[in-house]
């Protein structure tokens, strides 16, 4: 069973087919505090995004322009540092992910990363580059990430706590 709190504050409960209702209800009751915290987080992110204002089409053009320069530089730096090769780099405006790595070695990054502190961008770059060696999220993968970027856990936590604000600015 799993629970997800969406950005629109909808609570999504997933249970295996045939699960008795009382078990699902008990699960929800057990997760009440977690649900409340998630709802508060979504509310705070919405308030912060509102205070920052929505990104206009022109803002997004400028962000993409900057990202096409900055992100490849950071990828090249960490690829050389770690001895990792890659194929192509794609920069897009995405509404739900910061980066990805394809089996062909293509790296995809969200242009909004350039709005964040530089170390957050770097942590995503290293994460995606490490998928060139480990196409999973195994212990070996994270050991590799931490070897290259020791501050990864702090940056990843920051991204989880604050990243939603950036997504909300493009939803307006």
Automatic annotation (TrEMBL):
Gene3D superfamilies found in the cross-reference section: Metalloproteases ('zincins'), catalytic domain
Pfam family, one: YgjP-like
InterPro entries: UTP_pyrophosphatase-like, YgjP-like_metallopeptidase
Residue ranges constituting the YgjP-like metallopeptidase domain according to the UniProt record: 1-46, 63-162
Superkingdom classification of source: Bacteria
Annotated protein name in UniProt: YgjP-like metallopeptidase domain-containing protein
Organism expressing this protein natively: Treponema bryantii
């Amino acid at each position: 069973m799993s629970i997800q709190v969406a950005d629109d504050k909808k609570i999504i409960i997933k249970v295996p087919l045939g699960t008795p209702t009382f078990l699902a209800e008990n699960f929800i009751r057990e997760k009440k505090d977690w649900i409340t915290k998630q709802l508060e987080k979504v509310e705070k992110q919405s308030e912060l995004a509102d205070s920052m204002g929505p990104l206009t089409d022109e803002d997004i053009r400028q962000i993409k322009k900057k990202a096409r320069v900055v992100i490849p530089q950071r990828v090249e730096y960490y690829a050389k540092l770690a001895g990792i090769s890659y194929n192509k780099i794609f920069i897009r405006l995405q509404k739900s992910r910061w980066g990805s790595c394809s089996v062909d070695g293509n790296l995809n990054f969200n242009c909004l990363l350039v709005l964040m502190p530089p170390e957050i961008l770097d942590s995503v770059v290293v994460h995606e580059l490490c998928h060139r060696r480990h196409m999973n999220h195994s212990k070996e993968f994270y050991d590799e990430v931490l070897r290259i970027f020791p501050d990864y856990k702090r940056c990843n936590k920051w991204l989880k706590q604050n990243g939603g604000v950036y997504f909300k600015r493009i939803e307006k």
